What does this fold into?
Amino acid sequence: MRHCAFLTMDNLDGFVSDDELLYEPLARLGWRVHPVSWRKDVDWNIFEAVIIRTPWDYHKDPESFLNTLENIERSSARLANPLELVRWNVRKTYLFDLERRGIEIVPTLVSEQLEDSVFTRAYGHFEAEEIVVKPVVGASADDTFRVHQDSDDSFLRQIGELFVDRHVLVQPFMKGIVQEGEFSLFYFGGLFSHGILKTPKPNDFRSQEEHGGVITAVRPETELLAAGDRVVSLISPSPLYLRVDLVRTDCNTFAVMELELIEPALYFRMDGESPMRFARAFVEWMKNSL
It folds into this structure.
């Protein structure tokens, strides 16, 4: 058996992961999986590959996380996804790069500080009564807030305290999130695998399972899949896996909310064939590294 590590965190309590569904398909193709926390001191040379999977606390110490990935890059193990892509994807300002290349994104502003003027400017710029505030470096919808122009001052102060010395993204609240949901499209080895629709629980806007979101398998309509394919075609070097999160706009187009290249949940349980698709894509990806 050949050996690969699944990069994870010390404790996954409170999170939903189905990466264990990959163990048997990978074993059938000659690979044994070893879950390893990114915080551990490890000789990465004992693995042929390290696949970033569930280090869902990396955003709390991104510098240390990137240092770990640098150590892996210096070893003989092959890192998936490549460090070059991780560095680009770790800051959500990558959205502007996609926009410059013709991809429709959720309209976005970035600010170095969350001052009162940021809220005022955002309401006017987006012509919106509601906005969403989130950290430039973040995961799992942590510190993500839906703010109305009539929100209480104490609520705004609370948010401001959380964003002291942190860069922030501001976006209009997309009604499609609560009216329909957020679509996620999954690609392995550059090929579409499967899709899901994540619907927030009542009176919430966060679609993650950890926040009560409901997950449904979907067959993406033509325009939705085309929007995902356009994003995938722009990503280089070629990733082993990626997830594109999109929302339907008022104009019935699909705007990118996020592009996940670091540690996306891949929802293998929603498509029975997807674990083997991933395993085969991984084997082919390793062959191409020779």
Remarks:
- Residues 94-105+176-267 form a domain with the D-amino Acid Aminotransferase; Chain A, domain 1 fold (CATH 3.30.470.20).
